[in-house]
Specification:
The chain is of the alpha+beta class. The protein has helices at residues 5-16, 26-38, 42-46, 65-78, 104-108, 137-157, 159-165, 178-190, 323-327, and strands at 49-57, 60-61, 82-85, 89-91, 94-102, 114-124, 127-135, 196-202, 208-215, 218-227, 235-242, 250-254, 270-274, 282-283, 286-287, 289-291, 299-306, 309-317, 334-335. It starts with a helix and ends with a strand.
């Protein structure tokens, strides 16, 4: 499903009913709303919003304002949301502050505390007219990575429930369906990948030119091989593309001694690490590359032939016994 539109809509939920209400004394009104919200008093919390109030996060705005705000406040109560504002700054009719949030839903997606770098409330006649907020990069990346992994799992193992909860990639988060979300996320968190499968394809000369890695969640990564124009048997380098953006090729190894156009400046092969669910371990959106080593990772392979030539080869990899220790990456359960 790619990088989550789900995530952006979810973020709007995390804040939409989170902050409200100031009147004559905007600081006091903000505190009163947060007290009502944290106390689970939906009706009291809703009185702090103007009828046409709207919420914007990451540049996207909510629609159907009144109904959406009620639905989301009901969701917040169901997930036991708690808000922790930083120091308030009041300029005119606008209140600005940093914000942290905890909830049962956030814990399910592996985020103890969601942090917002800024939150801004614009008031009109003592009621919230507009809410603007932005997650910190750390919180947004953590939530996005978790939701992407969950969606990949659900597409294979809970497709009907995923379609019900995320129709057309727009999540339905309401108090009435929290139990369904909790059930799906609990099943996802308990899922463990027990094997990865590598399929090697060959050209008509019998030379392998591509390796594709898959898990039960779908395609994970692929490797491409670069060959000498003078000797097609000689591999001069390797490229790597990882799910979901296979179009972005990273040159990871130069075996010819000329590596000026390679992203990894030192020659030699590189591996990627994968976690127990078959997700590529990344940092700043890029796969983490590690030096090859003698890994204690069992595998078995099968070959298919077309006459005298190999047509394809399939290798199954099982969890590595020492990859986390060898790489210093705790979540590393496979190397490839």
């Amino acid at each position: 499903m790619g990088s989550p539109p789900t995530f952006r809509s979810l973020c709007s939920l995390l804040l939409l009913t989170s902050i409200a209400g100031c009147a004559p004394n905007l600081e006091e009104r903000t505190g009163q709303f947060i007290a009502a919200h944290n106390g689970g008093d939906i009706e009291a919390a809703l009185t702090f919003f103007a009828e046409d109030a709207r919420c914007g996060l990451m540049g996207e705005w909510s629609g159907n304002e009144g109904e959406a705000i009620r639905q989301l406040e009901e969701w917040k109560v169901a997930v036991n949301s708690r808000l922790y504002p930083g120091e308030l700054s009041v300029i005119g009719d606008t209140v600005s502050f940093e914000l942290s949030e905890t909830s049962g839903f956030l814990k399910l997606v592996g985020v103890d505390t969601a942090r917002y770098a800024t939150a801004r409330l614009v008031f009109q006649e003592g009621l919230i007219k507009q809410v603007e907020a932005r997650l910190t990069d750390e919180s947004s990346e953590a939530i996005a990575a978790t939701l992407a992994s969950m969606e990949r799992w659900a597409a294979v193992h809970a497709d009907e429930l995923l379609t019900e909860l995320v129709p057309e990639e727009a999540p339905v988060l309401a108090g009435a369906n929290y139990d369904q979300w909790r059930s799906m996320l609990n099943r996802w968190s308990q899922f463990e990948e027990d094997a990865l499968v590598e399929t090697v394809s060959y050209d008509h000369f019998g030379f392998h030119h591509e390796k594709l890695l898959t898990s039960s969640l779908g395609d994970v990564a692929k490797r491409l091989f670069f060959r000498s124009p003078y000797n097609p048997r000689q591999i001069t380098g390797e490229g790597l593309a990882v799910y979901p953006n296979f179009e972005e090729l990273i040159h990871i190894a130069d075996l010819s001694g000329q590596h000026s156009d390679f992203d990894v400046a030192t020659p030699g092969r590189r591996w990627i690490c994968l976690d127990k669910k078959g997700n590529v371990v990344t940092e700043d959106g890029k796969p983490v590359l590690v030096e090859t080593f003698r890994a204690r990772q069992q595998s078995r392979f099968e070959r298919e032939y077309d006459g005298a030539f190999i047509e394809s080869q399939t290798t199954t990899f099982y969890p590595c016994q020492d990859c986390a220790q060898q790489t210093g990456i705790p979540e590393c359960r496979f190397v490839w």
